Amino acid sequence: MQTNDYQLQGVQRTICIGLGGTGRDVLMRIRRLIVEKYGDLTELPIVSFVHIDTDKTATQSASLKTGNTYRGVDLSFRD
What we know:
The chain is α+β, with helices and mostly antiparallel strands. It has helices at residues 3-8, 20-38; strands spanning 14-19, 47-52, 69-70, 73-74. A two-stranded parallel sheet has the order 1-2.
């Protein structure tokens, strides 16, 4: 194995799954941390998010003090 091959092995696609309201809060915190570090969610395209909740209205409710935006970036989930 060459050095370049070894370096590429550390980067893996990641799917973060949140269940219910608490899971949504955790996902929003992760999304906020990505915005803090990289400036936008699109700058880290290897990370995806899935929020599962039986309450359909809970998906778009704001759990952050800033609502669904952080540093000008919309953190809300898409269907």
